[in-house]
């Protein structure tokens, strides 16, 4: 019916009505908290990411206790080793930092979902996500064996989900086969299927000490101008056996979250990345925005775009505000 019979504002008149017809929900259980675990004792603040620290294994266990208390959906572990080499051997070492942290967290909080990042960039002295050849190019196929070894070592340590973020072709299928052969057929693979070569990763590279020593990652991460390619990557990873899919970053790629969800009908996660977090923190510190309102609106928009799960450094604050 035309105005004045039809008045959409009727359903916005009171908080109760707005709540009753709200289309998108946001709850602590929708959120995953990333954690950076290092070999040092204690916490080390990350300058570009106020409120986020590198954590010892003991501090990571305590942080996971907070995640449990707040009802978060899980945590995502990134490791920062003391020793780096061309092959990234600490990524798949049985006593590597992520492996030790995973065992300690699962012993203390057995019901908390622990997702582990499967990549080599934090562990290689050159900072790239795979094996680098003499000419400086990343060798896709030679990298697969190392990524499989990393995923299997994480599963053996007790990881609930492994999440390859390297963007090598064929790694999902290789990891699925490797997990099955190693006796971990029920360990899901959360694939960073649609990961862009983004300018929003800057603070993360400080946090994870993973800035490439030369070149960049544009030969294996997606071109920000390409949407169809991102969907094709997602579909290929589904064919290779991915159990969940991830779009990264989130806010500049809300359209890809929607398109991946529509194309695959698979569980989709979105990563609200370090640059997005840092901008909100900087604007809030300057008094330009209401941090709580902006964070909750941002996370709701990511969910509205189709994300079943949001990985975010705001997770603890958001959960506190929501409850």
Automatic annotation (TrEMBL):
The active site is at 195 (schiff-base intermediate with substrate), 248 (schiff-base intermediate with substrate). It is an enzyme of class 4 (lyase). It catalyses: 2 5-aminolevulinate = porphobilinogen + 2 H2O + H(+). One of its GO terms (molecular function) is zinc ion binding. Keywords: Heme biosynthesis, Lyase, Magnesium, Metal-binding, Porphyrin biosynthesis, Zinc. 5-aminolevulinate 1 binds at residues 205, 217. It comes from the Bacteria. InterPro entries: ALAD, ALAD_AS, Aldolase_TIM. GO terms for cellular component: cytosol. NCBIfam families: PRK09283.1 (NF006762). Catalyzes an early step in the biosynthesis of tetrapyrroles. Binds two molecules of 5-aminolevulinate per subunit, each at a distinct site, and catalyzes their condensation to form porphobilinogen. This is Delta-aminolevulinic acid dehydratase. It comes from Paraconexibacter algicola. The lineage of its organism: Bacteria, Bacillati, Actinomycetota, Thermoleophilia, Solirubrobacterales.
């Amino acid at each position: 019916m035309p105005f004045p019979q039809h008045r959409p504002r009727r359903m916005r008149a009171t908080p109760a009505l707005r709540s009753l017809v709200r289309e998108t929900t946001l709850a602590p259980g929708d959120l995953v908290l990333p954690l950076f675990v290092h070999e040092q004792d204690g916490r080390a603040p990350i300058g570009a990411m106020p409120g986020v620290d590198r954590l010892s294994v003991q501090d990571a266990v305590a942080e996971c206790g907070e995640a449990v208390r707040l009802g978060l959906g899980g945590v995502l572990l990134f490791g920062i080793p003391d020793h780096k080499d061309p092959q990234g051997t600490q990524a798949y070492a049985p006593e590597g930092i992520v492996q030790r942290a995973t065992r300690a967290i699962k012993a203390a909080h057995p019901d908390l979902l622990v997702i582990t990042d499967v990549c080599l960039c934090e562990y290689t002295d050159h900072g790239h996500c795979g094996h680098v050849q003499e000419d400086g190019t990343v060798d896709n196929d030679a990298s697969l064996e190392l990524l499989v070894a990393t995923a299997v070592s994480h599963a053996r340590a007790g990881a609930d989900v492994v999440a390859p973020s390297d963007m090598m072709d064929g790694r999902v299928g290789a990891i699925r086969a490797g997990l099955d052969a190693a006796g971990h057929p029920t360990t899901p693979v959360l694939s960073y299927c649609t990961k862009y070569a983004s300018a929003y990763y800057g603070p993360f590279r400080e946090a994870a000490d993973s800035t490439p020593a030369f070149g960049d990652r544009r030969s294996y991460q997606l071109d920000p101008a390409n949407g169809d390619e991102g969907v094709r990557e997602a579909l290929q990873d589904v064919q290779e056996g991915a159990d969940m899919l991830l779009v990264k970053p989130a806010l500049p790629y809300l359209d890809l979250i929607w398109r991946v969800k529509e194309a695959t009908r698979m569980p989709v996660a979105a990563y609200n990345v370090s640059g997005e977090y840092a901008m909100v923190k900087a604007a809030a510190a300057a008094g330009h925005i209401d941090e709580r309102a902006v964070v909750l609106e941002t996370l709701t928009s990511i969910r509205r775009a189709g994300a079943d799960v949001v990985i975010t450094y705001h997770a603890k604050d958001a959960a506190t505000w929501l409850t």
